């Protein structure tokens, strides 16, 4: 029975591989040709060419950091920046209880959208009903317009200490380029198996749905920084975020040249060292800063759903990394 299911999965995936490959390639090129400046950035930013040239030819910019309002966080900014430079991530952020509760209330009272599809909206408690109605297994649930609809998320994007960390790390005035809030849903053993089989055959594809479970690195700007906050307790069985320590500074040439920027667990461990593969776990409210130019991924949740918030900063906003969607385009399952 297991072998039969394995063969069916392999056949289905291989049958559609080339059609999906060419479709993804077409969408990739079309998106970049519509935004030539972004296309140029994506092409050369992986080599850190512009930041290196800038640091060589341009005098360091003196940036005045305004602290008119008190921060929500008790963290040493310089220590966080040094950790980011050394490891690619910095731990130790903690959401205040009032902010945590407000975001959690928002998540429980607002529709998320199954697998990020605009027409599969449902509230979190309706997930099983929505899966039955749509005859689908939802692996994730994305919220849209979170920065506009949730004051607590908007407040985090303006927090003076987060801005100070971003300013000192990026070496310029940071721009808030977007916020995201999403669930990773725990999967039954059979669904985990089918997902792993699909990933095994799609390991070269740029897949927005399965891509989070591959080691990959982001190219959102020449320099960018993200803050992550868990809204649920997270361990290795509930979708822990995994970083590869130091992989933001020195990458294998093949990884830099790879069209899809994906790598297997084995390849990552062999080149960067298994001791540098760090699962980030923490209780609800735990936060971290991360330069996601490092290799990173999500572990597949097997016991509990994971809810996570992302706040992103860069030196330029290309308009491609936010959760903004016209409200009229969002539809509920029922």
Folded structure, characterized:
The protein is of the alpha+beta class. It has one domain: q2cbj1_9rhob like domain (Jelly Rolls). 39% of the residues lie in helices and 18% in strands. It has twelve helices and 13 strands. Strands 1-11-7-13-5-4-2-3 form an eight-stranded antiparallel β-sheet. A three-stranded antiparallel β-sheet has the order 10-8-12. A two-stranded antiparallel ribbon has the order 6-9. The longest helix has 32 residues, at 2-33. The protein is globular and about 50 Å long. The two termini are 35 Å apart. The model is unreliable at 55-60 and 203-208 (pLDDT under 50).
Structure described in brief:
By secondary structure, this protein is α+β, with helices and mostly antiparallel strands. It is built from 12 helices and 13 strands. Mean pLDDT is 86; it is low at 55-60 and 203-208.
